[in-house]
Amino acid sequence: MVLSTATPSLAPPPFTERRYVVTLIFVVSLFMLWGLGVTMTDILNKHFQQVLHVSKANSAYVQAATFGAYFVMGLPAGWFMKRFGYQKGVILGLSLYAAGAFLMVPAANAASFTFLLMALFVLACGLGTLEAVAHPFLDGLGDPASSDRRITFSHAINGIGAVSGPLIGGYFVLRGNHAAGDLSSVKVLYTIIGVVVGSVGLLFAFVKVPQLNAEHTPETRLGAPNETPTDLAADKSLFQHKHFVWACVAQLFNTAAQGGTWAFFINYGTDYMALKPGPAIHGFWQVGTLLSRTVGLVPGLPHLANDVAAYFFSLSLVGMMLGRFLGTYLMQYIAPNRLLAFAAVANIVMCLIVAQHWGWVSFGALIGLNFFFSVMFPIIYSLGLKDLGRHKQLASSFIVMGVVGAALFPRFVMGPVANTSVAHAYYLPIICYVVVFVYGAKLYKAGRG
């Protein structure tokens, strides 16, 4: 008798299981909804500058209200889902999201910037709750070893909502000329959003969520195939896991750079794309001007209108979505932390080019920023949740709180510089990308076995 010496094939774990499919579809849809809600705020920045005569720096209070809510709701959302479960956590998030959208109507009627910020804060409390709940929820919807793929894929779907935000906002809000105090388009848009989000919440209340897999169990370590899954975090407090602590720091700086990039994207387009080209590219510019008239640029002038700048912003978010799908594929061959470090270096180069305001070259680099930071948020999130066992739910809340970087950085760091020079403000995110690079190159494994 001949004994076979062949080793069993190590097939990758399944993406999910059949019993989770319906629940997974709903959870993934949440990523699309909050992508829509977040990028819509960057449209409001420019609109409030124009209609309410708010300065560039003060308009960044829109980001402060939105992402500050993530910080405020991070821990309460974690405690809520630990006490009442993931499904009720999702319903809470959608309820706050819809309530904030409906509050935008009386706020717009009052034409009050403060009231509008309060409504956005309530809406963003819903977004923060959804984000805190959805990541550990995804972790339980299948094999823990495939959770990285589920999270990165869901963030790619998030890109559909992110792309839709500027397109919808540009069409409803920025298109045409608006008189001072005219916020009628804001009322129509957010009424529709409130109805859609509220309907999704109502439907999800009737979904029967099956028992989740490995909800509090960490992944088995590589190289130990016979190891019995145990709670590796049992004898450690959450903040003794240094890789998690550094993930929170990295996410703070990552979202700071992202928030600043998005907050002043439209300002960059309208400020610098009005510059006439040099003689060397004059012929190309004439062709571009001819084409531009067909897509809504100011006739006869090399100038981006507000709504067209918003469409370019949407184009950049298409790059972000494609970057996440590409990143999901590349992680089969490249370690996630290395991909993260490479993306950080690429964005340092992009920011240097953007800050020079070299016309379309710099504007192209600004669009490219989204492609490279596409994988940063999900990779930092997944690396930070590794080997945390029973701490995963609370850890998710703390990582979500790191999104407060997007509240502080545009208003208090980039905003004052942008009042003088929007282009030079893009030097500042370089500091953030250096921190992300160090995390991806070294600190992602701090304290791990």
UniProtKB/TrEMBL annotation:
Topology term for the membrane: Multi-pass membrane protein
Assigned GO CC terms: plasma membrane
The keyword Iron is annotated on this UniProt entry: no
InterPro entries with a match to the protein in the record: MFS (IPR011701), MFS_trans_sf (IPR036259), MFS_TsgA-like (IPR050375)
Protein location: Cell inner membrane
Pfam families assigned: MFS_1
SUPFAM superfamilies linked: MFS general substrate transporter
Keywords from the UniProt entry: Cell membrane, Membrane, Transmembrane, Transmembrane helix
Superkingdom classification of source: Bacteria
Example GO molecular function: transmembrane transporter activity
Segments traversing the membrane: 20-39, 60-80, 86-105, 112-133, 153-174, 186-207, 308-327, 339-358, 364-383, 395-413, 425-444
Official protein name in the record: MFS transporter
Protein source organism: Hymenobacter nivis
